[in-house]
Amino acid sequence: MSAPSLTPEIVLRTSPHLHSKRSVGVIMRNVVYAMLPVCAYAVYNFGISVLALLVVSTLSCVLTEHMFCRAAGRPSSIKDSSVIITGILLGLTLPPGFPLWMTAVGGFVAVGLGKMLFGGLGFNVFNPALVGRAFLQAAFPTAITTYTPAQATGRFLEFIPTSLTLPFMQPPVITDWVAKVRIDAFSGATPLTALKFDKVTTEIMPLFWGNVAGSAGETSVILILLGGVYLVARNFMDWRITASMLLSAMAMSGAFYLSNPTAFPNPLFMLFSGGLMLGAVFMATDMVASPVTPLGVWIYGAVMGVMTILIRLLGGLPEGVMYAILLANAVSPAIDNLTQPRVYGTKKKAEAKA
Amino acid sequence: MGHDHGATVSPSENMEAFLNGLWKQNPVFVQVLGTCPTMAITNSARNAVAMGLATLFVLVFSNMLISMVRRLVQKQVRIATYILIIATFVTMVDYIIKAVSIDVYKALGPFIALIVVNCIILGRAEAFAGKNPVWQSILDGFGMGIGFFIALFCLGSVREILGAGTLFGFSLFGSNFQPWVLFLLPSGGFFTLASWLLVFAWWKERGKAKEAQA
Amino acid sequence: MNTTAPRADMPPSSALIKLMGVVSLICGLLIVTTHQQTLAPIRHNQEIILSETVAELLPGAKKQVSYGVDASGNLSIVEGAEFAGPRLFAGYDAYGGLIGVVIEGGERGYADVIRAMFAYSPQKKAIVGFKVTELKETPGLGDKISSDKKFLSNFKDLDASLEHPIVTVKSGTKKNRWEVDAISGATISSRAVGRLLQKSTKEMIPVIQRNLQRIERGN
Hints:
The complex is a heterotrimer. Helices cover 55% and strands 0% of the residues of chain A. The N and C termini of chain A lie far apart (45 Å). The longest helix of chain A has 24 residues, at 48-71. Chain A is an all-alpha fold. Chain A is globular and about 70 Å long. In chain A, 50% of the residues are buried. Chain A has one domain (24-336). By secondary structure, chain B is mainly α. Chain B has one domain. In chain B, 70% of the residues lie in helices and 2% in strands. Chain B has a two-stranded antiparallel ribbon with strand order 1-2. The longest helix of chain B has 31 residues, at 134-164. The radius of gyration of chain B is 19 Å and the shape is globular. The relative contact order of chain B is 0.18. Chain C is an alpha+beta fold. Chain C is built from four helices and nine strands, in the order αββββββαβββαα. Chain C has helices at 13-57, 149-152, 187-210, 212-217; strands at 63-69, 75-77, 87-92, 98-108, 113-121, 126-134, 158-159, 167-169, 179-181. Chain C has a seven-stranded antiparallel β-sheet. The B-C interface holds B 43, 69, 72-74, 76-77, 80-81, 84-85, 87-89, 91-92, 95-96, 98-102, 106, 163-164, 179, 181, 184-185 and C 10-11, 15-16, 19-20, 23-24, 27, 30-31, 34-35, 37-38, 41-42, 45-46, 48-49, 134, 138-141.
């Protein structure tokens, strides 16, 4: 999600005052447009399983919001499209063959716990899609780390066997299935898993174009960036958060790399692999959960970038974007407090004391 | 509560002392006290039962002893005395569990010592046993202890059923059931407690709404 | 309460000390009594757990002897759970023949130290059984090392001749007798088991080999 531009200068004009056409609905729909190429590529890369995944995650999110609104006796808020973004984002962050029943559980938790229990759009402390994903990661750690190779044969004709697992049942083991359908040179291991457990660094170009294994929508760096550029160009997104997150991640992994080039991967690999791009463009910029002060957004982005790299390189998990963003969401009110601009005409603290 | 009637206590007041902890002032679901052991230990029904029994034991005996000596204890040192008495019973429970079952001890080990700082126990000593006669204090200990036990069991059984597909180790849904690992982790304890609180809050609200209608 | 003025109702310290002394005495007595009463059953329980584990790892063992290993690698027979250092447990069949020796080991896993016992057969020069005795790994993931049948089948006949180090390999890629096939999704815990076995075998198997005749006699 993106934030409208936070113009620091005050614009004074005489009447007539034009009402901006930028309602929540318009912004949200544009974010959906920006994500469509990523979705399309995800379906191309992994097949019909991802199509089903995105449909189920979006539907479960929309239904949950509708149900909660009805239970609370309020008019349904699904028309502002923000819940569709949550649904699509949740789908994009899950492995392609993630069981559909678990996806529905994730959608319910994302919107129910992450958004509606806080009071709906504008009151959520955390990015709802990531709340859903964090829940799924903790509840079903095996399913959410089972990745399938990209560009598998017959991916448009058959589902990945794990997708169609019966509700509340364990997904089948797909080692044999993967061996059957995978094309040489395409592995089921994500670039970050390969790095963590086998110390193998993937080439940069496949990461950039996106034909590697990973969560459904995180693989193609170029398409995610294009979506981001569209939103920035139309002034629907706070580019400073994305820039700050990417730059700090780059600087942090650069410092690790320079300290020991054999033990740590190069910064460009770190930047292009995993969910960092998807997180930085579409999730870190969630306008509800991010700070509003100009300095605050830079600090906020830096917290996310640094945490991501720390979790990836020093933690037990291969990927850290999700927890980094959730942590930054949690400290975002504190960042706002610390970076309040001085009200014009008042003295600085130090002067006031003296 | 809070009055010291000496030996003249009506049966209804006894009942009150007992029922109070069981439901109206349930330590976990109403007072939300003692959540540390509640979160840490309730990942299976068996652990919950064991922890519930251990706490019940400590609560009843510490309430009894504290009530017995309540007239001798000067108020300046009462907390120190209470803690001393509570710690004694906790140490005894520690030995007894180790002697009875090593398996239960392995699961509860680090948490048994923590019963000392379970605020329910010191809370009852301060709020009740230090001011009330022995018999009532014992009943209060039983009421609170059983209330705590029920709460732990509610949490433990839900978490075991969802987190492992079993109850007291017996498989409920067959081997193909997908366990929700989250519910075995401490965060799952918070989710479960929150859900129970939600259920009780909803129940209370509904009761109030009905009363208002009538 | 007014805290600045001297308190009129403050009892003399001696009274407070006397009270605490009496309470401590009662409490101390209670604890000592319980300790005395439970000492024997606690020891007994620990013994039972140990010998049950050894019996499980060495099926058919009718008699067990436990040896303590001192710093220079010498053995001494120890009774009960007293000995602080590393221990070996030898199991014998009904005719007094040595079936195998159980070794204890520990290694850092994902969450905390994993402790395990495993059976070594001096005849086969191989590990023939493995049991995790203590772990705090993630439930449903890392804790599979104690229950996953496929993983445990690694230890039915694992080469421990010390010619090759015992290593954990990626799930499904085990080729040699000294390799441990990891559990997919629990790589960190599986690798910890490999390191645990490598470390303990390297330390303990030479001790067993040196004292093999004594262990076979069971004295």
